[in-house]
Every structure is written in C-alpha cells, then in structure tokens.
Amino acid sequence: MLALETSLCFKIVLYQPEIPSNTGNIGRLCVGTNSELHIIKPMKFFLNDKYLKRAGLDYWEKVKLFIHNDWISFLQLNSSSNIYFCETSGQKNYTEFKYQRGDCFVFGSESKGLPAVMLQNNPQNTLKINMNTDIRSLNICNTVAIVLYEAIRQTGWL
C-alpha cells in the first residue's frame, strides 16, 4: 500500500462554510492526506455540531485545524504560500497548474462560492474542474478531493 510522506501536504481553506457535514468530510480528508484545514469565519455552524462530528468520525480530533476571523488574518499567516482559488468560473483547468507541497487551495461557501473581488484580484491562480452544463457545480467535498489528489499526484507518493 502506498503512503503519503508524513510532512505537510497542503492547506485546504474553506471560506465561510455553511454545511457542517461537508466540513466534517473535508476534515477527514485532510487527516488522510496530512493536510491542514483552515476555516475563514463566519461559519454557519458550531465546531461541536453533531453532523460535523458524524461526518468527521473519530478522525475529527486529529484534524490540523486553524480558524481565522477573516481573509486578511489568513493571508497574514500564509503570505509565503502559493494560493489557488477554486471556482466554477476559473479560466484554467485544475490539471494545468504545477503544485508544490504547502500550497493553499481556497474553496467558497456552498451557496455563494468565493467573493467576486477575490477572483478578480487573482485570475492567474483561479482554477476550475471541467464538467458538463447539466449542473452548476460539484459538491464541495468532491471538489476538494479532486483538486487535492491531483496536487498530491503531482508532488509524489512514497
């Protein structure tokens, strides 16, 4: 069985998440990939929410979790990392980027996505997952998994 290197893989950033079970699933994914989970407030749930805990199972206690009061607070602590913005309006497919360990992937809230100004200020680092026109978007858990595992694939398994 292949295993990930034990050093930090990536930083998954949830901007104002709304659905606790999605955050729990993403936290579980972060534990499994040795990635950090960063949450930008406000959230529409509490961290002791039963749906978050159920989705995160007993892994939730192992999540490398960072809570930031706002976007500026996050940027101040992560200014040396590459930051990618994941949005359906991105111009480049997620496979067109060259990722490095420690990169940050920012995902918007389930109902609103990322703020337009954030995307307008970072068009060169805004990515998308190609899909047909029958749907507006994929579930955020699936999107995080797709992008994260592409970045892991690029940076190598042990």
What does this structure look like?
The protein is of the alpha/beta class. The chain has one domain (11-155): SPOUT methyltransferase, trefoil knot domain (Alpha/beta knot, 3-Layer(aba) Sandwich). The protein is built from five helices and seven strands. The protein has helices spanning 20-33, 50-56, 71-78, 116-120, 140-155; strands spanning 11-15, 36-40, 64-68, 83-86, 92-93, 104-107, 126-128. The chain has a seven-stranded parallel β-sheet, with helices on both faces. Helix 1 links the parallel strand 1 (11-15) and strand 2. Helix 1 packs parallel to helix 2 (50-56) and helix 1 (20-33) runs parallel beside helix 5. The longest helix has 16 residues, at 140-155. The chain is globular. The model has no long low-confidence stretch (mean pLDDT 91).
CATH fourth-tier homologous superfamily: SPOUT methyltransferase, trefoil knot domain
From N to C, what is the helix and strand string? EHEHEHEEEHEH
What is the CA–CA distance across the termini?
10 Å
Summed up, the helix count is 5
CA gyration radius, whole angstroms: 15 Å
Tally of individual domains? 1
Proportion of β residues? 15-25%
Uncertain spans, ≥5 residues at pLDDT below 50? none
Helical residue percent band: 25-40%
Largest sheet, strands/sense/barrel: 7 strands, parallel
Mass-distribution shape: globular
Summarize it.
This protein is α/β, with parallel strands linked by helices. Helices cover 32% and strands 18% of the residues. It contains 5 helices and 7 strands.
What attributes characterize this protein structure?
158 residues, alpha/beta, Alpha/beta knot, seven-stranded parallel sheet, 5 helices, 7 strands, 32% helix
